[in-house]
TrEMBL record:
Database matches in InterPro entries: HTH-like_dom, Integrase_cat-core, RNaseH-like_sf, RNaseH_sf, Transpos_IS3, Transposase_IS3/IS150/IS904
Listed GO MF terms: nucleic acid binding
Single Gene Ontology BP annotation: DNA integration
Transmembrane segments: none
Designated name of the protein: IS3 family transposase
Chain ranges of the Integrase catalytic domain: 111-274
Top-level taxonomic group: Bacteria
Pfam families (alphabetical): HTH_21 (PF13276), rve (PF00665), rve_2 (PF13333)
Role according to the record: Involved in the transposition of the insertion sequence.
């Protein structure tokens, strides 16, 4: 070693410092390569729907010590951009009717203490080359889980009733649940009001033209569209049905993490809640 250092004209301490720097650089490169591989895997595993904030959280859960800024930089360098598309809105609320309007019982109080205390529901438009489709969804305000949904080619009372019936069959809520919707003719219809009465639910409706009164279900439909619907071309209604099923039942309810739920999916958040009261 001394002879080599003498031949090269460097000190022993200088040589060892160089070796240490090389080892550190190799270690950094290995870690960066492993980090990139993990980021790519998580990005693909979430169907390219997660940006750097959620990817960072998943990495930290696995034990990585990383900043959101670094994850964002790496994703940007390798073209890993979440497939979020622009908004496109089709009116789905017909409030020009003579049916009774329920009072706004919910009144933007979106905090609740347990599942099946408050449900929120709405209809949204799903584009399809074979013809228009409409999705009626029922969301539990506590777990943010979609507990009932129906996809159909007409925006009728039967569509929202089917989603409600599925939700009730799945959850069997106790008497007094608050059911909140907009003022659409489907929700104000005599048939729908009768079903709420049968299920012993308390009807609540948004104020006219105030989308914030039903913000949670509006938010779900916005996420659904930006992460999936507008990034996908549905050629047939059957394809749309299968795609929506997979997004809601396999991804959104069971896998997609939510900041408001402590970065758990709705199903995992619900499971955690029931464990605490067992």
């Amino acid at each position: 070693m001394e002879k080599m250092c003498s031949t090269l004209g460097v000190s022993k301490s200088g040589y060892y410092k160089w070796v240490q720097e090389q080892n550190n650089e190799n270690s950094y490169q290995k870690r960066r390569k492993a980090l990139l591989a993990r980021i790519k895997w998580l990005f693909v595993d979430t169907h390219q729907r997660y940006g750097s904030p959620k990817i960072t959280h998943l990495l930290r859960r696995e034990g990585w010590k990383v900043s959101e800024r670094l994850v964002g930089k790496i994703m940007g360098e390798h073209g890993l951009r979440s497939c979020v598309s622009k908004k496109f809105r089709v009116a789905t609320t017909d409030s020009n009717h003579s049916d009774p309007i329920a009072p706004n019982v919910l009144n933007q109080n979106f905090k609740t203490t347990a599942p099946n205390k408050v449900w929120v529901t709405d209809i949204t438009y799903i584009p399809c080359r074979e013809g228009r489709l409409y999705l009626a969804s029922v969301l539990d305000l506590f777990t943010r889980k979609i507990i009932g949904w129906k996809l159909a080619d007409r925006m009728t009372t039967d569509v929202v009733l089917s989603a409600l019936d599925d939700a009730y069959a799945s959850e069997k809520p106790a008497k007094g649940l608050i059911h909140h919707s907009d003022r659409g003719s489907q929700y104000a219809s005599g048939e729908y009001r009768a079903r709420l009465k049968t299920y012993k639910m308390k009807a609540s409706m948004s104020r006219k033209g105030n989308c914030y009164d039903n913000a949670c279900i509006e938010s779900f439909h916005s996420v659904l569209k930006k992460e999936f619907i507008y990034c996908t071309t549905f050629r047939t209604k059957a394809q749309a049905q299968q795609g929506v099923f997979e997004y809601i039942e396999l991804f959104y309810n069971r896998k997609r993490i939510h900041g408001s739920l402590g970065y758990l999916s709705p199903v995992r958040f619900e499971e955690a809640y029931y464990k605490t009261i067992a």
